[in-house]
């Protein structure tokens, strides 16, 4: 077989595989967009082809979300919960990761692995004891219960992630800062944190995304519509028994996913640097 033909077959196979996975990954988002803008007459007519618009698109589903439901309240709740959890996670994980990476030697590495293993515990095993804690603090049926609970799974992973990144930063940089008059804490603030911005950005995106998509804890601790985050509100208040308001559900999911998609696309390089930064030294 000619070498040119072999090369052409390899390239065709490669780009064909890439196209397959792109379609596989992008189709749910395409389906969500199509469904969100379809009219009910188009959406529920089984004679219509479901993969494109058979009738003119409409904004009726979005109007219903903003005028007939507490959708804006759900958005605000999710934003408040996400920002609070991000702040708590950073304030806790940054010094913890730095201490484990710099001050404890091999025992710090073992402890870091132990902290990461707690992230792997399924939420379904934890919501019962956590519900007791929430009840004792009087936070039942409040979004602040989620602010209390979500750091239990964001802090372990983010500490482990930042720990690997801090290990990749040469110690000599901080030692030089200490020689120049900085305290250990000053070297951490002025040298370690600025050099760790990709990892910090990764923690922010990862934490906010987790809080935005979490469902089990929200369903367990919150029942009032005005306290629900967007994930729970869309999934529960837009379903009446066996009736699914698919247009409104997909419109809500589309609005919630756009900020996350924009953040990942704008900061993709830094996000990848933060994820992989602790892998090499």
UniProtKB/TrEMBL annotation:
It is found in: Cell membrane. The lineage of its organism: Bacteria, Pseudomonadati, Pseudomonadota, Alphaproteobacteria, Hyphomicrobiales. It comes from Bradyrhizobium canariense. Keywords: Cell membrane, Membrane, Transmembrane, Transmembrane helix, Transport. This is Sugar ABC transporter permease. CDD domains: TM_PBP2. The keyword Repressor does not apply. The chain crosses the membrane at residues 12-33, 74-98, 110-130, 142-163, 243-267. The keyword Nucleotide-binding does not apply. Belongs to the binding-protein-dependent transport system permease family. It comes from the Bacteria. It is a multi-pass membrane protein.
